[in-house]
Design brief:
With about 475 residues, the protein is an alpha+beta fold. Among the domains are: about 160 residues, PAS domain (Beta-Lactamase, 2-Layer Sandwich); about 140 residues, Histidine kinase-like ATPase, C-terminal domain (Heat Shock Protein 90), CATH 3.30.565. It is built from twelve helices and ten strands. Strand 4 and strand 5 form a beta hairpin. The mean pLDDT is about 90. It binds adenosine-5'-triphosphate and magnesium ion (MG). The site of magnesium ion has 5 residues, from helix 10.
């Protein structure tokens, strides 16, 4: 029962504002209208009935007063005259009956036979007090009075008046009132429709703006329609959007600064490696070469020197590659997607891992802020470096997807997989790769997921807002 009531209340409260306002207006109008109708009808009926009763009492007392002497003297002509007079005074009299105390009919105004039923239908109260009664007859409702003559010593007078008039008046008034209720209800529905329509416009505008905001749109400014509370709410909403825009811009500027300084630092290290460490190793190699050519070393020593020279070559190559990797990628001309495609080609070529890249038409020419593109590029670089160093994968799939408000990148390898929780919670780990990915993605307002299980490969998923 309680559940049913809660369900009912939930249903009612979840209808639209439009329906609520119209519903309440209509309900109140009908409640007030029919309440008034009922009250008016009851009051009118009571008053009319009281009026009839008073007249009935007056007329029957008048007859009783006049005929009691005539009855004592057996003057029937006078009885007849009294009754004639009474009929002429009060038009609504249906009948006047004079009965003796044994309920025998002594006189009647009706020109048809009076039934026994009518004669016995009303009797004075005990103690010979008059009695008023409503009788239902074939000709409609009749108000009847039974008045004892000479305190009940000479018989009873019965007077009956039709009260159809009262009912006719009542139904005419009811009809008029129902028509007015109907007209007032139409006016109430129309006015409440107008009111809810006016209220609904700014609310609809606000709802639309909020859903656009959720999609990342920030160029929103709603014009307040009225100077009321909703107008105030609209102005506050506009101010809030302005604040969010300023905060967003501040964060964005900070993000650009951070990425820029990171890139400058990488560039400095790259130059240092290339110009100093690389040069230093190259000159070491040349010195080694000059020693090899001299007769200072025997054949055994030469073999050793050749080995050192090979190791030096490898180190020079590695330092060179590392320096290239560190250098600022030129994304501005090619754009992120083409630069990644080129990187993947090189990766595949150098690592012998098959990489397939999939993207839809929407993502093909997608461009972001240069700093955001660099951040994404670095993240992809790190993910592939991990695949190369740890996964033993033979194939990698990289997907670029774009939905209404999200840009998604997925990198899936078929390698060994690893225990993500363990890698994350290892207290003395020196690795910073995954941590760096997370940091960079958060810096550009994105989310980073990694799913992996030992033996089932690794999947990296990056989601960033499409409008950044
Ligand atoms: N694709 C992958 N396949 C298998 N294991 C992985 C993969 N990516 C990461 N891992 C595991 O997660 C660990 C953490 O990776 P992370 O990139 O943070 O550090 P790292 O690569 O070891 O060192 P670095 O700081 O140079 O990146 C790795 O040591 C490796 O065990
Ligand atoms: Mg790594």
């Amino acid at each position: 029962m309680r559940k049913l009531l809660i369900n009912f209340i939930n249903k009612i409260t979840s209808v639209s504002l439009f329906v609520k306002v119209i519903g309440i207006a209509l309900f109140l109008t009908l409640l007030y209208g029919f309440g008034t109708l009922l009250q008016t009808k009851t009051l009118l009926k009571t008053n009319l009935q009281k009026n009839t009763d008073e007249q009935l009492l007056l007329i029957s007392r008048y007859i009783e007063n006049r005929i009691k002497n005539s009855l004592l003297t057996d003057d029937w002509a006078d009885v007849y005259k009294t009754i004639e007079d009474s009929l002429s005074i009060y038009n609504d009299i249906k009948y006047i009956l004079v009965l003796d105390n044994d309920y025998n009919l002594l006189f009647k105004t009706l020109d048809y036979n009076v039934s026994k039923e009518l004669i016995l239908a009303n009797k004075p109260e005990p103690g010979n007090i008059y009695k008023l009664k409503l009788l239902k007859t074939e000709q409609g409702y009749i108000r009847d009075i039974a008045m004892p003559i000479f305190d009940g010593r000479l018989g009873i007078i019965r007077v009956g008046v039709t009260i159809n008039q009262i009912y006719q008046t009542l139904s005419a008034i009811t009809e008029k009132l129902v028509i007015s209720i109907f007209l007032v209800s139409i006016a109430a529905v129309f006015l409440s429709y107008l009111l809810s329509y006016i209220l609904n416009i700014p609310i609809k505008n606000l709802t639309k703006a909020i859903s656009e905001m959720k999609k990342g749109k920030m160029n929103i400014n709603i014009k307040p329609i009225f100077n009321d509370e909703i107008g105030e709410l609209t102005r506050t909403f506009n101010a809030m959007i302005e604040n969010i825009k300023i905060e967003k811009q501040k964060r964005f500027d900070l993000m650009k600064k951070i990425i820029k300084s990171q890139e400058e630092e990488r560039h400095r290290i790259s130059r240092e490696l290339h110009d100093k460490t690389g040069q230093y190793l190259t000159s070491l190699k040349m010195m080694l070469k000059s020693i090899t050519k001299t007769s200072l070393v025997n054949a055994n020593g030469n073999d050793k020197l050749a080995e050192i020279s090979k190791a030096l070559d490898e180190s020079i190559d590695e330092i060179h590659n590392f320096a290239v990797e560190l250098r600022n990628p030129i994304l501005s001309d090619l754009g992120l997607i083409k630069s990644v495609a080129e990187f993947i080609n090189n990766f595949s070529h150098n690592s012998n891992i098959k990489v397939s890249m999939r993207l839809d038409d929407k993502t093909k020419n997608m461009r972001f802020d240069p700093n955001v593109e660099i951040a994404i590029y670095r993240v992809i670089q790190e993910a592939f470096s991990n695949i190369y160093n740890h996964s033993k994968a033979t194939t990698v799939d990289i997907y670029f997807k774009c939905s209404e408000n999200k840009f998604v990148i997925e990198i899936i390898d078929n390698g060994t997989g690893f225990d993500v929780e363990l890698a994350k919670n290892n207290p003395d780990r020196k690795s910073i790769g995954l941590f760096g990915i997370k940091e960079r993605i958060e810096l550009i307002d994105g989310i980073f997921f990694i799913y992996s299980k030992i033996g089932s490969g690794t999947e990296i998923r990056i989601e960033i807002p499409a409008k950044i």
